[in-house]
Amino acid sequence: MINRAQKWFKEKGWRPFPFQEEAWESYLKGFHGLVNAPTGSGKTYSLAVPILLEYMKNHPDKRPGKPGLQAIWITPIRALAKEIQISVKRACDAFGVDWQVAIRTGDTPAGERARQKRSTPEFLITTPESLHLLIAQKGYENVFRDLKAVVADEWHELVGSKRGVQVELALSRFKTLCPQLKIWGISATIGNMDEALHVLLGRDYRSEKVKVIKADIDKKIEILSILPDTMEKFPWGGHLGIILLEKVLPILYKSKTTLIFTNTRSQAEIWYQRILQVAPDLAGVIAMHHGSITKELRDWVENALHDERLKAVVCTSSLDLGVDFRPVETIIQIGGPKGVSRFIQRAGRSGHQPGAKSKIYFVPTQALELVEAAALRHAIEINELEERIPFIRSFDVLIQYLVTLAVSGGFDPAVIFPEILSTFCYESMSEEEWHWVLNFITTGGSTLNAYDEFKKVEVENGIFKVTSRRTALRHRLSIGTIVSDSMMEIKYLSGGRIGAIEEWFVASMNIGDTFWFAGRSLELVKIQGMTALVRRSEKKKGKFPSWQGGRLDLSSKLSAMLRMKLSEAASGNSKDVELQCIIPLLEKQQEVSMVPGTDEFLIESIFTNEGHHLFFYPFEGRHVHEGIAYLLAHRLSQIRPFSFSIAMNDYGFELLSDLEIPIEEALGMDLFGMNDLFYDIQASVNTNEMARRRFRDIASISGLVFQGYPGKNISNKHLQSSSGLFYDVYREYEPNSLLIKEAFEEVMDFQLQETRMRNALERINNQKLILKFPEKPTPFSFPILVERIRERYTSEALKDRIKRMTLRLERD
Fold it and tell me: What is the pTM of this model?
């Protein structure tokens, strides 16, 4: 059978990679597994081809009639679905397999969904949420009974999220329904491959019929940093970036097609508008792509890229993954990507064909990000990739899944419990916890059993089912684990939807205010419920929207590389052009304080008219710095009572007090010690308030709060109030609720990153602590100072304030 695939590749002028042929053979021999290969290496055909070959082998006579659903291809983002569909259809046509290759995502029109229900496609491309919606249908067992294969594409994107847990649960059900099922994952970049395989396959990962296939492809990536002509000695977040636009424009004009990656949607809006202001001749051939603009506009951008009608697209992670835009020649990354894997993924969008070299231009938004560029290059050279931490014991997702099964026609706990225990996420769940969950969905649990609204599931002859049509409808509308702040629709007064913006941003504006969205200057006319009505404006100035939680955190792998490169630069042994560029900054830092080596930890103590500042430089990312900052503030307050202001960036953090802080005394009392660390963390941060914020998402996923019907979303204020009320009730009357425990565990694991915090403190304890007393803020401390004052000023006022501060520092 493999000869058929090899012949087709030859006819197309292609040559199969060894990893593709190994995947074909392994699949046809009945293996499960994971394919690990770089972007643009033909990963899709590594598994789509053997799925078709096996069908041809089992159906040599090509009998007429529909064989039912044969394969499901799960993709993490909707933008991938179209390209996968094109590739699979191409293979079907080549092999003469008359399959319907369909897409089922949140963007699929109702008419198409109805057609799929009447006539099940043989190959279905879908998302985790849409897959669970299919399971919520009556008689779903009949839809999936002929299923032979499930492929989880871009598995590294799913494995560290609750969407990955959704996939685990769906697979646990399919294994029972379809004994002949083969499960495979595809991942371009991942560090903890064995654990990712365990998450995908559950307990079956120990089977002899399991294989990890790694592509032996040396993907070349060239990093070209855009360097400023002069280097400021006192940098701050955002002081570069747009200033370097004049150096970016020649790259755009020279290239046939360019993707400009930003880390946030707000940054994409700003760059798109600034490019058009400086180069108005690009109007019509430059576009923007991010998740908050309408599907129609996103589709137009993707099609225009395919047809080579666009010269450049400013985008976010919405175009990170494997959509095969062959015309793209050039990639530009704005700001540090904060992770090695993310950077490789984006670089791979150029040279996206097998064997081609990827080239990426790096545009720093502040001077110290140039150290990130050098660190990224080294990490790629030694293949140092991040690990994705999988979720465990996510009871909110389990509750949602059980209600999904109950909506579809019911489930027998004796059948479902062993399936759930076979997953990675729930393999440690006890029978007592299982019965708590069953009690929660049938009675509302011991806390809510007086309210009929929470008695969603009834038990009939041992089968747990939902009989209320209202409950079933509300549940289907709530399926999913992506929870964000309430979104307000942005529509023209004359009709036509533009996209969606978080409610808090619209609430910050007055009627008549101007803002930029989807590349357009818009005037807010009026607000109707959860819809903001706007009209076009001719004004050139206006706010740019921002989205909560959009800031990326520095990964642990990149943190280690960054510290190493900084030490190299300080010793004068670096050949990286980026580090040579920031020599004036490092020389100034060495002059007024020091640049720490890999075995040194720097603390700066500075007095200003604001008070006593302590600056610490772990270079571990914002979240870890937040946790350590609160921990040290707590421990210092044990010496004598203090009130602190805290500020941080990816490189360090600040403690500011109006009183002199006894830092030397504290260092002598084991300030960074590991003893009683857990209890000190609990005492140092308001974990109760952090857990309350986490609980809002958990309450939504588990169905405690309903986010509203389509077009009638419930306001963010109401959702917060509702989830906060549930949180308080549980804390008082049922503190051992599994959902409350989950909220606190997520705070420790994902917000404070307790494990990484411990590792950082252990490293600091093994380093030489160096305390310096500069007279003024240093090049390292200055950007942290700016982070603290940023919220007090408008963007223009902030620039003026910083200009005065830097002039004074340079004069002194």
Answer: 0.85
